[in-house]
Amino acid sequence: MSNVGCGGYGGGFSSAALILVLFILLVIVSRGILY
Fold first, then answer.
1. What is the chain's Cα-based Rg?
2. What are phi and psi of 2, to 5 degrees?
3. Which of 3, 28, 29, 35 has its C-alpha lying 20 to 30 A from 18's C-alpha?
4. Cα–Cα distance measured from residue 2 to residue 27, given in angstroms and rounded to the nearest whole number
5. How confident is the model at residue 17, as a pLDDT?
6. What is the Cα 32 distance to its own chain's centre?
7. Which of 3, 20, 4, 21 is CA-nearest to residue 12?
8. Per-residue model confidence (pLDDT) at position 1
9. Which of 5, 28, 29 is nearest to 17 (CA)?
10. b/e string for 2-26 if b means 16 or more Cβ within 10 A?
11. Residues 20-32: pLDDT tens digits?
């Protein structure tokens, strides 16, 4: 659980930000498919 490949912003922040971005993209894609 290190921040390798995330630019080195900080261990916990990079993981949380990556998960948040993936979740937002998933919501946008699902809305695009449903509507």
1. 13
2. -115, 175
3. 35
4. 27
5. 82
6. 19
7. 3
8. 46
9. 5
10. eeeeeeeeeeeebeeeeeeeeeeee
11. 999 999 999 999 8
Nearest CA-CA partner of 13 in 27, 26, 21: 21
Number of helices (H) and strands (E), helices first, in the chain?
1, 0
pLDDT at 12 over 70: no
Q: How far is CA 18 from CA 1, 4, 22, 33, 34, in A?
A: 13, 12, 6, 23, 24
CB 9 within 8 A of CB 3: yes
Q: Which two tokens stand for residue 2?
A: 């290190």
